[in-house]
Specification:
Layout: E1 2-10, E2 15-23, E3 29-39, E4 44-49
Antiparallel strand pairs: 1-2, 2-3, 3-4
């Protein structure tokens, strides 16, 4: 139903753009763009879409290096 067409990460701004093709299996397809912004300074993540999306949630799995000695990430979810 959903196929990833393109992914683009801008390390300077922290913006990840994911282009998806959505097929409702009834002959209707549409392109959905998912925008994910990671703020290193504020430790926030924002995920939005340009149109209604066929998914209800997203999962964030931060990459963590044991050698860095950093604390585990704290996740707080807010729905709008």
């Amino acid at each position: 139903m959903v196929r990833v067409v393109n992914q683009t990460l801008d390390p300077a701004s922290g913006l990840l753009t994911i282009d998806l093709d959505y097929d409702d299996l009834r002959g209707k397809t549409k392109r959905i763009q998912v925008l994910c912004f990671v703020s290193w300074a504020a430790n926030h993540i924002s995920v939005s879409t340009n149109a209604p999306a066929p998914f209800l949630s997203v999962a964030y799995y931060p990459q963590r290096e044991r050698e860095a000695g950093l604390p585990l990430p704290e996740l707080k979810v807010e729905h709008q």
